[in-house]
Design brief:
This protein has 348 residues and is of the alpha/beta class. The chain has 13 helices and 10 strands.
Length: 348
Amino acid sequence: MSENMDKKVKIGTHNGVFHCNEVFACVLLKLLPQYMNATIVRSRDQDILDKCDIVVDVGGVYDHSAHRYDHHMREFRQTLHTVLKNPNYDDLIKLSSAGLIYCHFGHEILRNLFPEVKDEDIEAIFKYIYDTLIVEINDIDTYSGGKQLYSTCTNLSSQVKHLNPPWNSTNMNEEGQFEKAMALVLDVFMNFVTRAEKIWLPAKEVVRNAVANRFTVDPSGEIIELSEPVPWEEHLFTLEEELTLIPSIKFVIYSRKGENRVQAVPSRYTDHRCRFDLPNKWWGLRDDTLVAACGIEGAIFVHATGFIGGHKTRDGTLAMTREALKIIKYVDPMHDERLCRPWLFNKD
């Protein structure tokens, strides 16, 4: 690599599966002059990340002075209010990395975009964007749980609505905007149709086979193993209802590009709550500290909310999952799901 490339500004984030949270953080940073031409480096190698000028959504550190913006740590509790120390902000939803970047750089971004706008109006726009867009991304990524405290503003209906000529438009062509709306809807529809045939339907067979073979993975029948890392939640709930599965499945294990994972099953499809989380004493821990807590060599991480964890090997992932089941049944020896998790069986 040339000396000029070494000096190029670098934005670091993780590789592998990407989410709206870190994509949005990178987009926001590139709206700033100091990061506009930056190279985005995607890696989990700490030595590589240490050489980046700014790092988002990975690294295990939140430190604005060092330009490190991860939010996955067990102790992380930052919200818009706690970061900005502004009494006008009193939200309960934890910040994602996109939220952190918006909090720290949002005013600067807006001033660059609207240099003629007064400071008080910049503040009003800042809060409006947070309340209508950023908060949704935060909640989806951080699994804050509880009652939804915001309105969803990025769905297809909202996007079509926003294509209507605004009230103060004088020369926007309504028919032209209608054509744009049709093109948008067609693109979304065809994407959904294609994904249903090419991705959704084949995934259902993978999940069906995993459910059928669950007792070969663990005698409890409460763990399934996917042969491929398919989207499984919707199919699992459908199959459980069809087959009247009790005890219900608690954990799903799978491997994606050599990364072995255990994921807790949500209480309902699209719900942030899980039937049974991974043990609380594991939450937010990594590597040696996690190994010390769970007693399983090779354990890599457990998310700060306990819904997912990782191990270096498939067998180690299964060992973590079995240990989690033991802890669940020790804490709740009667293990009657109809009593301890009634929302699983409440159809209302």
